[in-house]
């Protein structure tokens, strides 16, 4: 068993400790399959509603991955009393683990913690939903009727799921045989559908919109394949991946590896197929053929996993903060808003042209901290985000292809091995180490992505 004691007061060395621990743990896992634990010694924040103070130097909108990490970083920079985070949810979820929850490899309760426990101690938690942003007057308005003004605004509102854009959903989830790892309410339905699979088509969809973690729609497919093999039902199943995209994955190196896997596992892939309707009472899914407008096909299913259409947060609409497609319009290198110099963005809500992941949030957070520091000093931002993002493509209950790449779709791999090969160590990274890195590194503002370690691992060559 490998133990790592993390003391939050010594944050400067913690990132290094965590990464070192991660690497030590991998080695240990390799050697003897031991269990890894981290014990953390942090103060727990006590939450509250809005106080009479209605102005903060920095207001962070959204208390998800990006909002909490920026709250922690800004607290260290300017003091907790000058920072507020506006977030309505009582619970904070580590969404990447839902892939494993949908496949029965983790339980849902392991993915959530009270928001009060992740808000950086002393930072104001405004437990409300922002309803309106007025960047011309440096003000936001919440659903509890409060008006909060700011000097600097960090927008970290994530994205919105649109199950309702598929005819027959969300009410179709009341029927069995259908699930979706993308929401708290439906992720366990995936596992139920998988366990109850008898015979027929197991269908996995990918929508015709940007999505978060573009690998997740097929990760659950590989896990389902593995589960059906394990339970002796695979010969009775047709596994079908119907994706709106013209490719299996956006980066060629990893797409090539995935094509080999789907071929060897006898999985049917239909490109440019977009789910438009679910007739859950009849177990039918209707897909439009994006290359033949007006044409659609009906697939019967024994199990259906839905990845919903997704879009920008509605509150950005009409705020003059959004781009033509509704996403927060930021500079792709500095993360500063293209129109309002005191507004910044991070994570899924932005129009950064990279894959939307928590790994991307980590890399963005250190750049954004630097950008804000410079802007506060009236200097020019000087650190550039290269689009780093990562997707641990789970290919079975013990293997992962760890995709890491930049804005240009160029692999940006941390480890000095070919990461397009299925790896057991990378599975343990995904299932056991990354959650710890998330809760104790990223959310504390201590993990800015693996960039420095990549350099180290490649002897300064990358
Ligand atoms: C099934 C699944 C698998 C994934 N797998 C991976 C993976 O393997 N690796 C990886 O790196 N990433 C993965 N991700 C993606 C990752 O979880 C997201 O990219 C990441 O959480 C984005 O952070 P964010 O802060 O932008 O958004 P979020 O973490 O979603 O946070 C947005 C926050 O804004 C709040 N909010 C929304 N509207 C308002 C409002 N009006 N007012 C105030 N607050 C508001 C929300 O309540 C939420 O807390 C996965 C996601 C899913 C669903």
From TrEMBL:
What main location does UniProt list?
A: mitochondrion
Q: Which residues form a coiled coil?
A: none
Q: Which Gene3D superfamilies match?
A: FAD/NAD(P)-binding domain
Checking Pfam families in the record gives:
Pyr_redox_2
Q: Which GO terms describe its molecular function?
A: FAD binding; glutathione-dependent sulfide quinone oxidoreductase activity; quinone binding; sulfide:quinone oxidoreductase activity
Query: Which cofactor names does the annotation list?
Result: FAD
The FAD/NAD(P)-binding domain extends over 56-180
Q: Which reaction does it catalyse?
A: ubiquinone-10 + hydrogen sulfide + sulfite + 2 H(+) = ubiquinol-10 + thiosulfate; ubiquinone-10 + hydrogen sulfide + glutathione + H(+) = S-sulfanylglutathione + ubiquinol-10; a quinone + hydrogen sulfide + glutathione + H(+) = S-sulfanylglutathione + a quinol
- What keywords appear on the UniProt entry? FAD, Flavoprotein, Mitochondrion, Oxidoreductase, Quinone, Transit peptide
Q: Its GO CC terms?
A: mitochondrion
| One GO term (biological process) | sulfide oxidation, using sulfide:quinone oxidoreductase
Q: Which InterPro entries match?
A: FAD/NAD-bd_sf, FAD/NAD-binding_dom, Sulphide_quinone_reductase
Q: Please state where this protein is localized.
A: Mitochondrion
- This entry's Enzyme Commission designation comes to 1.8.5.8
Q: Which family does it belong to?
A: Belongs to the SQRD family.
Described function: Catalyzes the oxidation of hydrogen sulfide with the help of a quinone, such as ubiquinone-10, giving rise to thiosulfate and ultimately to sulfane (molecular sulfur) atoms. Requires an additional electron acceptor; can use sulfite, sulfide or cyanide (in vitro). It is believed the in vivo electron acceptor is glutathione.
- Name recorded for this polypeptide: Sulfide:quinone oxidoreductase, mitochondrial
Query: What species does this protein belong to?
Result: Electrophorus electricus (Electric eel)
Gene that encodes the chain: sqor
């Amino acid at each position: 068993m490998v133990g790592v004691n993390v003391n939050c007061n010594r944050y400067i060395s913690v990132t290094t400790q965590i990464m070192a621990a991660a690497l030590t743990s991998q080695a240990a896992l390799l050697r003897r399959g031991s269990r890894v634990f981290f014990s953390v010694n942090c103060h727990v924040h006590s939450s509250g509603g809005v106080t009479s103070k209605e102005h903060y130097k920095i207001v962070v909108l959204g208390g998800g991955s990006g909002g909490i990490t920026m709250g922690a970083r800004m607290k260290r920079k300017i003091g907790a009393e000058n920072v507020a985070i506006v977030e309505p949810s009582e619970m904070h979820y580590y969404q990447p683990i839902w892939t494993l929850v949908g496949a029965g490899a983790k339980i849902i309760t392991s993915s959530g913690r009270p928001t009060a426990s992740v808000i950086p101690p002393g930072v104001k938690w405004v437990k409300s939903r922002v309803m309106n942003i007025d960047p011309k007057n440096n003000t936001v308005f919440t659903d509890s009727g409060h008006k909060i003004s700011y000097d600097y605004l960090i927008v970290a509102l994530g994205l919105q799921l649109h199950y309702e854009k598929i005819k027959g959903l969300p009410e179709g989830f009341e029927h069995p045989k259908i699930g979706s790892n993308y929401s708290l309410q439906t992720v366990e339905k995936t596992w139920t559908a998988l366990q109850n699979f008898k015979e027929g088509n197991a269908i996995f969809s990918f929508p015709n919109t940007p999505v978060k973690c573009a690998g997740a729609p097929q990760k659950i497919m590989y896990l389902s394949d593995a589960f059906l093999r394990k339970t002796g039902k695979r010969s009775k199943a047709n596994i079908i991946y119907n994706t709106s995209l013209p490719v299996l994955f956006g980066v060629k190196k990893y797409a090539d590896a995935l094509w080999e896997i789907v071929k060897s596992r006898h999985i049917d892939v239909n490109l440019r197929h977009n789910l438009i309707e679910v007739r859950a009472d009849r177990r039918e899914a209707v897909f439009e053929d994006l290359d033949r407008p007006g044409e659609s096909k009906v697939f019967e299913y024994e199990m259906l996993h839905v990845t919903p259409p997704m879009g920008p947060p509605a509150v950005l609409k009409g705020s003059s903060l959004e781009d033509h497609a509704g996403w927060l319009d930021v500079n792709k290198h500095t993360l500063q808003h293209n129109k309002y110099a005191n507004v910044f963005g991070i994570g899924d809500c932005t129009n950064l042209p990279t894959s939307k992941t928590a790994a991307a949030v980590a890399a963005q957070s250190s750049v954004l901290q630097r950008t804000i520091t410079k802007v506060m000093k009236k200097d020019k931002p000087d650190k550039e985000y290269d689009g780093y993002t990562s997707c641990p493509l789970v290919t079975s209950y013990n293997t992962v292809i760890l995709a890491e790449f930049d804005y240009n779709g160029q692999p940006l791999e941390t480890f000095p091995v070919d990461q397009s090969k299925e790896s057991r160590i990378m599975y343990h990274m995904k299932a056991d180490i990354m959650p710890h890195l998330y809760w104790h590194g990223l959310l504390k503002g201590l993990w800015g992505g693996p960039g420095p370690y990549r350099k180290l691992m490649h002897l300064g060559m990358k």
